[in-house]
Amino acid sequence: MRPQDELQVILEFYQLGELSSYVQDERGFVNVSYAIESIKNGEKKKYFLRKYKQGVKEREIRFEHSLIKHLLAKEFPLVAGVLPTKENKSYVSRSAPEGNFKAIFYAIFDFLQGEDRYTWIDPTCNDDEITSAAQVLAQFHNAVSGFQPEGSREEPEIVKLLPLIAKNVSACAAKDRHTRFDAYLQQNRDLILEHLKLVLAVLNAPEYLSLPRLVIHCDYHPGNLKFQQDKVIGLFDFDWSKIDTRCFDVALALNYFFIDWYEQDGQLQLDGCARFLSAYQDALQEIPGVGPLSPDEIKFLPHMISASNLYVLNWTVADYYHKEVDVEEYLIYLRHGTNFIKWFERAENQRKLAQLTNL
Question: 185-234, pLDDT tens digit by residue?
């Protein structure tokens, strides 16, 4: 079915009028999304339509949508509302025409204003953008503190996911496609697996396992933010959200914002990290709610940054072996994650990270 026909069929589940125009969002790696414009009673309005990836569970969509509704109810103004269908549901389910999946899911959201300034790769945020992004993440964590979402996310929390990542990496030898990606992965396989053991040993400490859990964004990077001047005015893509420790969410943000690409690939930009953490802590200092990161949460941040790098590296490997992708593009991602492991394990960088977390 042509995209235009498919989108028009989905619009028939809503009271938004007829499809006027659409543009596919080429920046996404997981879902297929469109900026659409519909016309009703002579008035045109813009929306964001998402076709969810194959295999997503209905309870995962309910989790995401209940989170968005909660944020709007808590007067967190930076998110796009999910629009109701004619049957007052937050998504559309259609039978999958082929394959092993029973249904394909769609949702339509309000269109967020602001500038799409960055992607997740090599963002070059200025100091004011970094400060604003840290404040927004702090406000998000405060807004979801104590929230119990509907549904559930399939993916386990990071401490339970790391052993599964190790299995995924170990199994890659049997999937060899005989490319430069495969060769590089096999060359660094033992390094990655040993590092996984190291990080998992640290996170299995009772102090970490007893940290509080809350809903985290789990994909907080500059490409999921909308900007106006130097301020974040929009936050989107909550389909990766799940329940985990918030220091993992903060660490994942530090990963995306501050692990260098290209010239010093894999090196963590510590000055940027310090600015982000300071702004995050300050934003939660004087307001009631979740509060700033605790000493225990801060203590685990270095290894949480490494866990977040392994999390993204696992996505790289899984995507490579499950899809037809650009080998050289994914080799860049794989080298990026591997180079951070090498950077992290140097003794002088361990000392620098200890100083960073001495807030």
Answer: 999 999 999 999 999 999 999 999 999 999 999 999 999 999 999 999 99
CA 71 from chain centre, in angstroms, equals 17
Which residues, in sequence order, are CB contacts of 79 under 8 Å at separation 6+? 68, 71, 72, 112, 234, 235, 236, 238
Per DSSP, 324 falls in state -
Reduced to 3 states, what is the DSSP secondary structure of residue 12?
A: coil
**Phi, psi torsion values for 15, nearest 5 degrees:** -110, 55
Same domain membership, residue 345 and residue 263: yes
Number of structural domains in the chain: 2
CA angle 45, 48, 53 (to 5 degrees): 155
Query: Same structural domain for residues 188 and 100?
Result: no
* Same domain membership, residue 59 and residue 8: yes
User: How far is C-alpha 188 from the chain's CA centre?
Assistant: 25
**φ, ψ (nearest 5 deg) of residue 54:** -65, 140
Q: 90-102 pLDDT, tens per residue?
A: 999 998 776 666 7
- Per 3-state DSSP, the chain is made up of helix, strand and coil in percentages (nearest 5) of 50, 15, 35
**Confidence (pTM):** 0.95
